[in-house]
């Protein structure tokens, strides 16, 4: 059974969480430019991220199978590092995490969710669109003269 819950204050398996994110994002390595910011994460920076943002974990029994980090903005709740174990993708875990994000946005009186996804990852664009997100902008990473990611938003 899949459970979704905030990262507990006594969470200690930052290396396991980092491994999950890196495994979930590994398919992007040969596809996106610039490389994913996930490669700059460490167990220490993940712990810091969890202090600064609201992290959620997905477990299948005792096994960590997914995560996301949420950051309140002026008019939306930013969804970042949404990651599902490759072995568990396609089981609805991402949708469960996004339902938790929607509940958190409503709790914070924020009217929308916002996320960024790389321009090359068209399957992600389609998945997020199926979940109710709409493309709102194309943007570039610093130093790039072409769009490198798109912003998507879901009004709640």
Structural summary, described in words:
With 156 residues, the chain is an alpha+beta fold. 29% of the residues lie in helices and 32% in strands. Strands 1-2-3-4-5-7-6 form a 7-stranded mixed β-sheet, sandwiched between helices. Strand 4 (77-84), helix 3 (93-107) and strand 5 form a beta-alpha-beta unit. Helix 1 crosses helix 2. The model has no long low-confidence stretch (mean pLDDT 97).
Write the layout of secondary structure elements.
Elements: E1 2-6, H1 14-25, H2 43-52, E2 54-60, E3 63-72, E4 77-84, H3 93-107, E5 112-118, H4 122-130, E6 134-139, E7 149-155
Parallel strand pairs: 4-5
Antiparallel strand pairs: 1-2, 2-3, 3-4, 5-7, 6-7
Helix pairs in contact: 1-2
Précis, in short:
By secondary structure, the chain is of the alpha+beta class.
Beta percentage is 25-35%
| Rg value | 15 Å
Stretches with pLDDT under 50, minimum 5 residues: none
Helix proportion range: 25-40%
Number of E-type strands: 7
Please report the distance between the alpha carbons of the first and last residues.
27 Å
Estimated structural class: alpha+beta
Largest sheet: 7 strands, mixed
Q: Sum up the overall morphology in one term.
A: globular
- Please, how many helices? 4
Order of helices and strands: EHHEEEHEHEE
Q: Which strand order do you get reading across the main beta sheet?
A: 1-2-3-4-5-7-6
* Average of per-residue pLDDT values: 97
